[in-house]
Structure formats: C-alpha cells, structure tokens
C-alpha cells in the first residue's frame, strides 16, 4: 500500500513518519521549497524569530516524537511558570492561571471571582450557542469577557460572539473528557498535583522539528511540487503535480480547506464546495526588538482598549530570546489591516508597544498568514457535511486539534488506522 501525503507541514511530516513506522510506503508532496508549513523559524539580526507557533509544550506525543528523532538533547527549556497578562482599564493585570493568581489578581472584582464559583451549576454547551454566550453563562460576564474569551479566541483571531462553541471550544472540552463542570475538572487537575508539560523550543527555533523529519525522509518528500488535482484511478487515486501523475492507494490531505477544495474539485465537486464554505481569519504579526525588561509569557489586549495589537508573546522573557517580542494584529474585526504595507504594520506595532510598555521598539520583521486560522464561525457548520470518499483522509488543523500536539497525535492515529487490515 502507498499513501500520498499532500503537504509537508507538521501534519504531513508526522504522518510520513508514523506511516513509515507502520511499514506503509509514502510519497509526500510539498508546494514550497521548505518543510514545516506554519512552523517557520528565521534568524534576523542574530535573533531567532518564530513566524508561526512560538513554543512547544512537551506533552506525551511531542516528547515521544522528539525522542524518536534523536532531538531530546537539543531541546531548550523555557520558563514555564511565568505569568500571562491581560490589558484592561489602562494596566496589565495578571491572568488567573494559578490558584494564587486567581485569588490575588486585580483583573476581576470579588463579585466577578465569586460568580466563577457558580460554574458547576451551569449546563454544558448548547446547540447554536456562541463561545461568548457559553462562557458568559458559565462564568459570568466579567470573567468571560476579561479572561476566557481573550485566552481562547486569541489563536483564531475571531471574536467570541462569532465563534460557535459546538465547533470550537466544545470540541476541545470533549477531547479533555470535560462533559460537565470545567471548574471541577480544573480543581481535580490541581489537586492531583499535575503540572503542565514544560515549555520548550530549540536553539534555532521550532523549525528544527520539521527539518529533522524532512531530512530523515528526504528520499520520499518532493519539495517545490504543488499538488494540482486528485483523480480516481482503478481502486486508488492519481495525484497530479507539474511533474506528472503519481498512482497511490490512498491520499491524506493536510492543506488548508480552500487549497484542499481546489485539489479535490476534479474528484468530487460537492466535497470541494463544502470545503470552500469555511471562513478563515488571516494572521498578521510583527516581530519587535526592545530593551523593555518585561517578565511573563506575554499579554492579551481587550478590544475596548482600542489597540490594533491583539496580543503579544514576550519571547525575551519566556524563552530568553534577546529582546524579542512578537505582536499579533488585526483579527476578524480589522481585516482592512491586510491592505496596509509591511512598513505601516510594523510602525503600528512599534508605536503601540511603546504606548503600552513605555519603552521604544524596533521592527525586525512583519509576516502574514493567509488563509490563516479557521474562524470557527457559522460557516463551520459545513463540517457536518464533510464526507470524503473511501481512501481520502483529512489530517488537518480544522478536522482535529489545531496545535502541534494535536497535529502529531492525529497523524499517529491516522497512520495506525490506515495500517489496520
Ligand atoms: C502565528 C501562529 C501562531 C500559532 N500558535 C499556535 C499556538 O500557540 N498553539 C497552537 O496550538 N497552534 C498554534 N498555531 C497553529 C499551528 O501552528 C498549526 O495549526 C499547525 O502548525 C498546522 O500544521 P499543518 O501541518 O496541519 O498545516 P500547515 O502548517 O498549514 O501545512 C500545510 C502544508 O501544505 C503545503 N501546501 C499547500 N498547498 C499545497 C499543495 N497544493 N500541494 C502540496 N502542498 C501544499 C503548505 O505549503 C504547508 O507546508 C499557530 C499558527 C500560527 C500561524
């Protein structure tokens, strides 16, 4: 059996790795000249910048993969226990991510904190409910708006009133086995004395992980080879690229939905149409350098503060990255930012950094991701109609968990399933 893998981001590479482990032949096609997809690290003026995810949590599936690739000794540990801040009412206030911070933070009033304790009395997600409505019903308006909404929606650039809980947060809770009270689950976790997995990266950035996989399987990954179409051929499929057709028994797609739609159009128009329904939010980010000595993982900025910056990772503090700060701008509410030049975006990020932190910042780089991240708005109800034919699999950040841990676990599960007789 040969599986054709479309895309050499973390999903496609991990799938290539696990299929090899299962003794299944693979042929992987990547449109660009480099591995990693959204995981990209660059060195600018001697400083390591992450264009995608900023760090890894060394959870089970990641730890195992890092070890299988012989990279354990290259890991570089970050500061797992630093605070995260939320900018509210003119000041940075600590997010209540520990018992101590939950008691001491001035982000919430006492009334707001007490309201959180009523969460176990509330019901789980309801059909058609927005993330905003769900979190407000569970934790009260103050905690929902100042803590949970910015922490959850930040990655997707969506506003909580647009996101459907059933297709986003609700799925995440289910995956963690949380069907009832979220607060009770958190308390159980704390009482068991479990610590979150450590935050890690590599000396030259996270791209070390995809690069290691690409090197190991160099003989079966074709770079600069975009897949243009997939067609039926006998009992299997033909993958069409500019180099010609390749016959495979099964195909695994890892590309964003709009790209998958174009590729699958010749095979199944209805499936392609469904994939085209999904809305994405582009991500705009600016890497800054500043002498500001901030301690923490970063910050989220509440929308009413009026900044274009939605949040920042303080790489300088979390990962000891020499004065580097990563700002995320725009989101679903400020799409017009995409019309601005990189210089203009960099200038906005630097100006707002100085305004927020009282220290100047220089722009190191500006980067955009399009289509970006799934918006998980009303358009994602189309996920219920996503029904690929036998032998076509989606191993993607929109059919399963988005993050690196989820991508690796999804690839492993898919490889095991494809190996079943
Ligand atoms: C700025 C940013 C920060 C993030 N932070 C976090 C975080 O903190 N936590 C978290 O959980 N997640 C985070 N993510 C999300 C996470 O990085 C992604 O969900 C994950 O890396 C997606 O990996 P993937 O392999 O599924 O897809 P991708 O990385 O998108 O890979 C798809 C690959 O397919 C290739 N391709 C496209 N078209 C074709 C074609 N026609 N033929 C062949 N190949 C093609 C692409 O070039 C790409 O290499 C972040 C993402 C970004 C951009």
UniProtKB/TrEMBL annotation:
Enzyme class: oxidoreductase
UniProt keyword Oxidoreductase, yes or no: yes
Residue ranges constituting the Amine oxidase domain according to the UniProt record: 10-418
EC number(s) recorded for this UniProt protein: 1.3.3.4
Gene Ontology terms, MF aspect: oxygen-dependent protoporphyrinogen oxidase activity
GO biological process, one term: heme biosynthetic process
InterPro entries assigned: Amino_oxidase (IPR002937), FAD/NAD-bd_sf (IPR036188), Protoporphyrinogen_oxidase (IPR004572), Zeta_carotene_desat/Oxidored (IPR050464)
UniProt cross-references to NCBIfam families, sorted A to Z: proto_IX_ox
Name used for this protein in its record: Protoporphyrinogen oxidase
Organism: Halodesulfurarchaeum formicicum
Gene name in the database record: hemY
């Amino acid at each position: 059996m040969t599986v054709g893998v479309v895309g050499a981001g973390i999903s496609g590479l991990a799938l290539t790795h696990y299929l090899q482990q299962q003794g299944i032949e693979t042929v992987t096609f990547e449109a660009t000249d480099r591995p990693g997809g959204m995981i990209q690290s660059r060195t600018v003026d001697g400083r390591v910048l992450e264009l995608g995810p900023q760090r890894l949590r060394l959870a089970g599936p990641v730890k195992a993969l890092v070890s299988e690739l012989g990279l354990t000794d290259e890991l570089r540990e970050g500061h797992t226990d630093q605070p995260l801040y939320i900018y509210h009412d003119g000041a940075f206030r600590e997010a209540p991510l520990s018992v101590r911070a939950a008691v001491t933070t001035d982000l919430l009033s006492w009334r707001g904190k007490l309201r959180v304790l009523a969460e176990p009395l509330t019901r789980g997600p309801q059909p058609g409910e927005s993330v905003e409505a769900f979190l407000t019903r569970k934790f009260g308006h103050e905690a929902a708006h100042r803590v949970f909404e910015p922490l959850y929606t930040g990655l997707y650039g969506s506003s909580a009133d647009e996101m459907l809980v059933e297709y986003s947060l609700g799925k995440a809770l289910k995956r963690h086995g949380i069907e009832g009270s979220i607060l009770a689950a958190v308390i159980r976790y704390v009482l068991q004395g479990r610590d979150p997995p450590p935050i890690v990266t590599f000396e030259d950035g996270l791209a070390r992980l995809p690069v290691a996989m690409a090197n190991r399987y160099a003989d079966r990954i074709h770079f600069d080879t975009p897949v243009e179409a997939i067609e039926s051929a006998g009992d299997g499929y033909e993958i069409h690229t500019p180099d010609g057709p390749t016959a495979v028994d099964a195909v695994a797609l890892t590309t964003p939905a709009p790209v998958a739609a174009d590729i699958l159009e010749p095979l199944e128009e209805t499936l392609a149409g469904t994939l085209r329904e999904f809305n994405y939010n582009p991500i705009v980010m600016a890497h800054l350098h500043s002498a500001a000595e901030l301690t923490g993982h970063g910050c989220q900025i509440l929308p009413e503060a009026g900044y274009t910056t939605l949040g920042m990772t303080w790489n300088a503090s979390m990962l000891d990255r020499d004065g580097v700060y990563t700002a995320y701008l725009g989101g679903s509410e400020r799409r017009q930012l995409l019309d601005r030049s990189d210089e203009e975006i960099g200038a906005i990020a630097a100006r707002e950094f100085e305004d927020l932190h009282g220290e100047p910042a220089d722009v190191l780089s500006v980067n955009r991701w399009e289509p970006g991240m799934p918006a998980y708005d009303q358009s994602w109800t189309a996920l219920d109609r996503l029904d690929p034919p036998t032998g076509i699999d989606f191993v993607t950040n929109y059919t399963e968990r988005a993050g690196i841990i989820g991508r690796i676990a999804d690839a492993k599960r898919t490889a095991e399933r494809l190996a079943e007789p």
